[in-house]
Write a structure and sequence with these properties.
The protein is an alpha+beta fold. It has helices at about 75-85, 150-160, 165-179, and strands at about 1-10, 20, 65, 105-110, 115-125, 125-135. About 20% of the residues lie in helices and about 20% in strands. The strands form two sheets. The chain has a three-stranded antiparallel beta sheet, with no helix packed on it. Helix 2 (about 150-160) crosses helix 3. The radius of gyration is 15 Å and the shape is globular. The two termini are about 20 Å apart.
């Protein structure tokens, strides 16, 4: 998908930085400014190859406008429940999805916290592709490298797509951490 993967804040569960998606500036609605929110990166569309020579053959796209991702086919209710959990809200207290589903690519801020900005990335197989991320841009927050356990979890999910080799995934994530 379009954008940039970066790591910031501190995960209570994994230790180290959390993964965030910084979408391109032209995403409908744009960014909402600094606050306190890739995926959750990994919740959005898996854009396996953008047609540029070499991307699937080891060219590292971290920080260059393309984000490796894993898509999951879930209901609106399931997505809202996962989003609520990532927003530290009670189950069933997830964000309303009507505004973000109103059409096209758009960002909708649901609150000030990390993972409280919903993004519609367009459509995948005719269905809306949604994710959540931070309301701030990477340059507005201190970078924080992720733990090895968290990187292994991300690598495992990306590996399950079959789109990239383990070596390409390791290099991609290492480049994202180094940015």
């Amino acid at each position: 998908m379009r954008g940039r993967l970066y790591f910031a804040t501190e995960s209570r569960i994994w230790g180290g930085g959390r993964a965030f998606l910084e979408p391109p500036d032209e995403a409908g609605g744009g960014r909402t400014g600094p606050g306190d929110s890739g995926t959750g990166p990994g919740a959005g569309r898996a854009d396996l190859d953008d047609g540029r020579p070499g991307l699937g053959a080891g060219r590292i796209a971290a920080g260059t406008g393309r984000v490796f991702a894993r898509a999951y086919d879930v209901s609106r209710e399931q997505f809202a429940d996962v989003a609520a959990q990532e927003m530290y809200r009670a189950p069933g207290d997830g964000p309303g999805l009507e505004t973000v589903l109103a059409g096209g690519e758009r960002a909708v801020r649901c609150g000030p916290g990390r993972y409280e900005t919903l993004l519609c990335l367009g459509a995948l197989d005719g269905r809306p592709a949604l994710t959540f991320t931070a309301p701030w841009r990477a340059a507005e927050v201190a970078p924080n490298p992720p733990s090895e356990r968290y990187l292994a979890q991300l690598a495992g999910g990306l590996g399950e797509t079959g789109a990239w080799s383990a070596a390409v995934i390791r290099a991609y994530l290492a480049a994202a951490v180094a940015v």
